[in-house]
Amino acid sequence: MSRFASRRNKLRRLFGKAKIDGLMATNFTNVTYLTGFTGDDSYLVVDSEGEVVVSDPRYTTQLGEECPDVATHIRPPGTSMLAAVKKTLKARKVRRLGIEGQSMTVGLRDTLAEALPGVELVTTDGLVEQLREVKDKDEIAQIRDAIHYAQKGFGVFRAQLRPDRSEKEMADELEYAMRQFGARDRAFASIVAAGPRAALPHAVTTTSPIGQSDFVLIDWGASDGLYRSDLTRLLVTSKISPKLKKVYGVVLEAQLAAIEAIRPGVVAGDVDAVARNLIAKAGFGRYFGHGLGHGIGLDIHEGPRLAKGSTTVLQPGMVVTVEPGIYLPGWGGVRIEDDVLVTRTGHEVLTDLPKSLEEAVVG
């Protein structure tokens, strides 16, 4: 049995609790996870008797190559997706059809309900996403590859960092280097934020030169074509100031303590609390305004969330970021981020770039 067939069987075991007898996946990433098909504009229907991808002629050959064990319904030119879905479902015995509430539009839901009066549509929330939280060995291997590309690219970035180059130039340099080392793409739009702009957790790179900024924050990741990595480091471009030493020290202590708390059976919100309490105790609580981390995989942000109030219990196979930060308007920000695998006995830090402040200094 293929790993994709195994995933579909795991999904079927969730149908009883969800009170459905079939699911139509309209989130293209979920379709990829369940079949191996990497195209878009296609839906997947899974029920007790099997599964079928509803697609169009552009993907006929690709579907045959990527998921030969999955039946297909190829809608001919001029036939709408709705008509193809209607024909597919009428041929199956689904009476309570689960739909993905996070991806299906209200318009499509209403039109589908009108077209299928004998089928009850049941809105589901995260059935496939909860399966995606725990990675198998192949997924973990692909994340390791994505981390490798990102870290190799960062080495080039560090060597090329100069005051006369802009944030955007350096971000472009980083992304090109990752591709040169084997990445298919960047995992997300890279952040290169110099000096005070590092106080913006999701800063957009500008054409302004790095200049005489004391430090530069870099948040980046690579994709192997499907799976992604996510890292953050700070590079110091001048003498380490007492303020930077203090802030960086607090963030690093919080990150190391949170990583140490990661193991199976621990509640995700409790890991967040470890870092958040340390930062608050140091007097910077109100300057840490986002969650501690998130899952990575086919999407750059997916479950589980390491955040205040998160009740998810960590399980072996989950891969999460750990990224505490302190952001001081007008001065700058410090964030340190690594990707961490939950193992059967504890955790493994998958990223291994240096992160002591002394090692962050560039010439």
Helix content: 25-40%
Order of helices and strands: HHEHEEHEHEHEHHHEEEEEHHEEEEEEE
Number of continuous helical runs: 11
The CATH homologous superfamily of the largest domain is named Creatinase/methionine aminopeptidase superfamily
**What structural class should be given to the helix and strand makeup?**
alpha+beta
Question: Can you offer a commentary on this structure?
Answer:
Helices cover 35% and strands 21% of the residues. The chain has 363 residues and is α+β, with helices and mostly antiparallel strands. It has 2 domains: 3-132, Creatine Amidinohydrolase, Chain A, domain 1 (3-Layer(aba) Sandwich), CATH 3.40.350; 137-360, Creatine Amidinohydrolase (Alpha-Beta Complex), CATH 3.90.230.10. α8 (137-160) crosses α9. The longest helix is centred in the middle third of the chain and has 24 residues, at 137-160.
Characteristics of this structure?
11 helices, three-stranded antiparallel beta sheet, Creatine Amidinohydrolase, Chain A, domain 1, 2 domains, alpha+beta, elongated, six-stranded mixed beta sheet, Creatine Amidinohydrolase, 35% helix
Outline of the structure:
By secondary structure, the chain is an alpha+beta fold.
Write the layout of secondary structure elements.
Elements: H1 3-12, H2 15-18, E1 22-25, H3 28-35, E2 43-47, E3 50-55, H4 60-66, E4 71-74, H5 81-90, E5 96-100, H6 106-115, E6 120-124, H7 127-132, H8 137-160, H9 167-180, E7 185-186, E8 191-194, E9 215-220, E10 222-223, E11 231-236, H10 242-260, H11 268-281, E12 293-295, E13 302-306, E14 319-322, E15 325-328, E16 332-335, E17 338-342, E18 347-349
Parallel strand pairs: 1-5, 3-4, 5-6
Antiparallel strand pairs: 1-2, 2-3, 7-10, 8-9, 9-11, 12-13, 14-17, 15-16, 17-18
Helix pairs in contact: 8-9, 10-11
